Amino acid sequence: MILTQRASYHGPERAICHHREVTILRRLAHLLWLPRFDLARPYHLRQVRPVGLGLVADGGPTLGYSALEHFLGDLEALRVAAPLGDALAQCYLQVWPPPAEGAFFYLDPRRKVHYSGYSIAAGKVSATDRVQGAITQLFLHDAAGHTQCPVDGLHMHSGPGDDHLTRTLRPFLQRVLPLIGPDRVRAIVADQEMRSVALMQALDTADHVGFVTLGRTPTPAQAAHYAVTGLFLPYRRDPATEAITHWIAPARIQLHDVRQNQSWLAETTLVLDCRAGLPGRLIPVLHNLRAPAVPVALPHQVYVGRWEAQERVFRDMRAGQNLDANYGHKKVRAANRTQARRRATLEQ
Q1: Which contacts qualify for 85-89: CB closer than 8 Å, 24 or more apart?
Q2: Contact residues for 224 (Cβ-Cβ < 8 A; gap 6+)
Q3: pLDDT at 39
Q4: Which of 233, 239, 339, 342 is 20 to 30 A (C-alpha) from 249?
Q5: How confident is the model at residue 340 (pLDDT cuts 50, 70, 90)?
């Protein structure tokens, strides 16, 4: 991929334009083996240069910090990240091909704390009251591949810390869907960040992309707006007492966006959770799977599968993806200029 990007590179002269293939492979091997020697980034090579790193890379001496930093700068100039991500996605799909009827893919954003001395986009990235700078990473996961590869996603997109799924989902899918094949994507399963009338309408009408997401828990007055198109049937039972704990029924609801003056009719799977007693808690699962052969329980089963196919995967990949820290920048917390102005006003 590097050699392909180098052939089409037009810009200032870089050292990588004259590297031999063996030289590029040697630098890549150093970067790949850094974590095995407890080195989180090339900067650590200024304090220690393990002999074993050079031995496993090519049998020669270990490269230094400056060589690897210049190499990373060359890779950034070649813009190799995006085509490399596309190539990796195609390799994953060769190992775990989706079934002929299509597969459900899980999509979820994660935020990384970003320490920098420069002014960057700031957003609320935790449950606390602190507002820190961050970058948002959008992960696309294949449920079938997670049981074999719990340390990586199918595809990943990085953006500013204040990015939201409603703004980044369509551009992301427009890039990724051609790699997978639209006929092999049965639906995209996402959390409540996807709950936008404009976005769901665009995916359904313009892009013809299937989706499954969770709706808000309705109040008794809001529950009356759901048009139930079938009967509530027993869905789940308590394994010990055999008592019915969940009921399920198909329904529809007209969603409205007052700000943008839009409305859209959404298919809904209503799940009534009676484990805490009657009348129970109503759980709506919004989707656009309108085929006659789709079971009424399928959207809920697919959404519940997020915990096994995605959320638990994030727990395993936190260390590998550094979801809690963004190395390579000075560890100086980005200033929140809004709070700074308020504090200065109060002090004055």
Answers
A1: 85/155, 85/156, 86/155, 86/175, 86/179, 87/1, 88/155, 89/154, 89/155, 89/176, 89/179, 89/180
A2: none
A3: 87
A4: 239
A5: confident
Q: Could you tell me where the beta strands, DSSP code E, fall in the chain?
A: 103-113, 122-123, 132-142, 155-160, 185-190, 211-214, 227-228, 233-237, 244-257, 262-273, 281-287
For the record, the structure tokens of 131 come out as 């507002």
Pairing of strands 233-237, 244-257: antiparallel
Q: How far apart are CA 84 and CA 76, in angstroms?
A: 12
CB 257 within 8 A of CB 263: yes
Tokens of 264: 């859209």
In 3D space, the residue among 232, 242, 212, 226 whose CA is nearest the CA of residue 280 turns out to be 232
SS3 state at 280: coil
Amino acid at the residue 74: D
d(CA 209, CA 200): 9
Pairwise CA distance, residues 141 & 94, whole Å: 15
Residue 161, token pair as written in the block: 């810390």
Highest-pLDDT range among 48-52, 100-104, 115-119: 48-52
What tokens does 292 get?
Answer: 């006659």
Beta bridge partners of 228: 251
Say if residue 107 is exposed, middle or buried (CB neighbours under 10 Å; 0-12, 13-18, 19+): buried
Q: What is the b/e burial string over 268-306, where b = at least 16 CB atoms within 10 angstroms of the residue's CB? A: bbbbbeeeeeeeeebbbbbbbbeeeebebbbbbebbeeb
DSSP conformation letters of 30-98 = HHHHGGGGT-SSGGGGGT---HHHHHHHTSSPPP-HHHHHHHHHHHHHHT-HHHHHHHHHHHHHHHSPP
Q: pLDDT-derived band of residue 95, with 50, 70 and 90 as boundaries?
A: confident
Q: Are 150 and 165 in contact (CB under 8 A)?
A: no
The answer, yes or no, to whether residue 124 has pLDDT greater than 60, is no
